[in-house]
Amino acid sequence: MMRLEVRSEIWPLASAFTISRGSRTETEVVVATLTEGDKAGRGECMANPRYGESQQAVAAALEALAPDIASGRLDHAGLQRALPAGAARNALDCAFWDIEAKRAGKRVWEIAGLDPPRPVETAYTIGLDTPDMMGAKARANAYRPLLKVKLAGAEDLERVAAVRKNAPQSRLIVDANEGWRPDQVAPLSEALRKLHVQLIEQPLPAGQDGALAETGRPIPICADESCHTRADLDRLSGIYDAVNIKLDKAGGLTEALLLRDAALGRGLGVMVGCMVSTSLAMAPAVLVAQGAAFADLDGPLLLARDRSSALRYDGSIVHPPEPQLWG
Question: Fewer C-beta neighbours within 10 Å, C or N terminus of the chain?
Fold first, then answer.
């Protein structure tokens, strides 16, 4: 008999983290653990209020499935139909992958038919702040090859200019988190091109981004809030140049891998992102990030502390997980 345990956790951040929708000093996650005999598999998710999720609702949705899991009525394949894409399905999907690997005595990438994962270069995020403060944060991280800069609309050019001045060798991507207006996209994109920005994430609100089809794109534009699963790809055609895949949006490793392959098959660039979470949440995302144009898996670097058996970060290089952590 398989048993499901659901646990909510709070992890403090190393410093306040701010985006266009607000600021936080801690992150809340939900961990699903499947136990069968002496084997246990885990998965972690973070509820996102932007998508109508709460930590309590995610935990309740998972706990409601415990009887069906214990009776054998719900398995890994059935999970894809039992829950919609989102944080709750992600935690349980990753827990299923983990325990199936432990049952088989293999790594997840082996049972998924993937090549052994290699270390991945991750972006490091400069949270939203004044230009001076963001410039100072960029100076402290100028050794990192890829920086992701959070934006909001007003003062964005000053913010990026300050980051560029203080990290002249770093590649830059920017993330507006739906914070621009349609009339800002073209002029800001052209100005950011001159600052050698390589990618713009989600400049307009999801559902209001059709205007991008009529906008020149001197810099590739990446869908984040607008892209959750493969079902979104038809709608995004001609609007975006790339998609940001996050397991909490896709509903787990299963859909994330399928979304990656489908996006690449359509000629879209792929970025693999994360929420502010621990190494347990990043571990399966490292598999999805293989071959991606950009990876943004710096969640654990923003925490005051991480889990035991955490992912190994050498500067901005994140290594595949050890089996003690996941997979």
Answer: N
